[in-house]
Write a structure and sequence with these properties.
homodimer, alpha/beta, Rossmann fold, Dihydrodipicolinate Reductase, domain 2, 7-stranded mixed β-sheet, 6-stranded mixed β-sheet, 13 strands, NAD(P)-bd_dom_sf (chains A, B), homoserine dehydrogenase activity (chains A, B), HDH_cat (chains A, B)
Amino acid sequence: MTEGITTVTVPVLLLGCGGVGRELLHHIVASRHLHSKRGVVLRVVGVRDSRSLLQVEDVATMGFDDAFLTEICRIKSSSSSLSALLDFGHCQLFKDSEATTKILDIAGLLGRTTGLSVVDCTASTETVGILKETVDLGCCIVLANKKPLTCGIDDYDKLISNIRRIRFESTVGAGLPVIVSVTRVLASGDPIYRIIGSLSGTLGYVMSEVEDGKSFSKVVLAAKSLGYTEPDPRDDLSGMDVARKALILARLLGWRINMDDIQVDSLYSNEHGPNSMSTEDFLRIGLPSLDRDVQERVSAASSRGKVLRYVCVIEGSRCQVGLQELPKDSPLGRLRGSDNVVEIYSRCYKDSPLVIQGAGAGNDTTAAGVLADIIDLQDLFH
Amino acid sequence: MTEGITTVTVPVLLLGCGGVGRELLHHIVASRHLHSKRGVVLRVVGVRDSRSLLQVEDVATMGFDDAFLTEICRIKSSSSSLSALLDFGHCQLFKDSEATTKILDIAGLLGRTTGLSVVDCTASTETVGILKETVDLGCCIVLANKKPLTCGIDDYDKLISNIRRIRFESTVGAGLPVIVSVTRVLASGDPIYRIIGSLSGTLGYVMSEVEDGKSFSKVVLAAKSLGYTEPDPRDDLSGMDVARKALILARLLGWRINMDDIQVDSLYSNEHGPNSMSTEDFLRIGLPSLDRDVQERVSAASSRGKVLRYVCVIEGSRCQVGLQELPKDSPLGRLRGSDNVVEIYSRCYKDSPLVIQGAGAGNDTTAAGVLADIIDLQDLFH
């Protein structure tokens, strides 16, 4: 079946080798055999963490081998410095500002010739500058990081200025095929008039547990101990992470909006915010004080035969993130646990929506989406 | 936002301009403005129906304009011959065998240079020959027609020999992103160990109505009068259409199997088959005689807290199509009406599957999937 398949080598430069980035390197090692059967060779030419850039000696011809990639994963798991890898030889280390210059050198050398996929697995707002420069140098961009796409609209426009060379599936619903589905519906000329989704596994889990009669504070604490929440659960409860995903979807539909244009209902009030109390105080005092209000809203919804879900709604001129009462027998209403669900309504999917559901978080799944994006881009280089 | 976007012109040759093909031409006209904004121009150079090929005068430079494409749709709606369009000028008509030669001429001229998308919207087994030849000539293939992919494995291998140049999303679940989702999961190195799906809107509708206590025969007759079934409902009840979709999915997973390897449970027995009785007799006598058996199976499932669904299952070494008892609270068990549902199980989607749900039939939705495939292929020509 491989008869006639030409092989393409895809150079990859990875920004961020923490959770998702590290998992991506694992996936690249594990799937190398599979991809070579389909004529694709992934060549990792460099990895950048918050302190330095580690690159192969000759970026034009070399890539880290599997043993080296595995060693990077091991080093990063133990929170050690990439410099520990210099002993392996055939690589170079650059620190801070020098690292940025070197990345642009690599982008300049490879971007327009063989193509270079610059893969952002950080959670930083600081990568947007270098990403924009690599776009100008002809590179492809793959994002797990939502922040570059949720900056100002000018930055966004720049990043997607060559729409064929950017992929960002893992920014919404991790590896779930949400972006590709929206893109395909739009490409078919089918106008999307509504997207509604539960895009936070954490908040999905919390709301379905609360519906079962448990107290909000206890469920949040349980979610925290299960590792479902951020260290400060307010990072989830604020809704800002969902708002970023909503903005990415809205902009994909062509909406010219910014974060400020999204109505975000936080699950806690300002008096319980990070500026007013510590995480510890929030968990001890702030969180339990929210129980009654949440319980009343759940009961009120239930008395109307509905359930409460924390969703994003993109419809008409409205992009909104917060608690909504939804029919029990809708895909969102039936949602249990930490799955994500997205309902897409268009001319073709009017009476019943196009629904995508599944695990929408986790390093493994997110990295899987990133790798599928990298592979998808290689069509450009045949 | 279009700054820096280069325009690519995609020549399209359409085989079959009945239901789906006609709808595709409508979509192309309706979405032309949208695509040109993204740098894609679709140029329809010819349309082939069962009798003849109508092509533009100069396939290297011309395409049918929107007025002409609309006229093709009008002519085909009224079951008239494409020859009626000769009056419009700037086009040529070729009959039968001459048409095949001409298609290969066009494929030879455009295949390797600008790319040519040969789009099969027929329901015929007879296109496989010409499709294989156009593959050799460097053309891209887009299929709504399941039959070329469900022929012998040699034909299949030939068609997918250049995997980057074939798309067939609409063969399974119409426009639903099933193929692209499976492809992405595989590309990420995430092994799929189970696919289970309800891939017949007709049988989905029938089984959920029967579950509500209606008799099987009455539901099938109602479905027929709503236009949900083929003229002879046995074409749906045989399960062969579902089996074709199952084979396409299994082969996508790398299984080297043929139609014969699929265990297909028909909803009627041989004594009620097309060789034994006419459609009319089947509807009058055969169909009601099935009521009791179906009712008993539904009741037996219900007594075990389960529901009966007509599904395909691809798992282990088994590819099976037929009625299965499923948990009421699974995505498939909750299925109502004519929606398709596919559950994909893999390492990333193990505890709860990746689920895709929505309308999985209809000319509009099917043609939308075909158009999204055509647009997806244009990345190859930048």
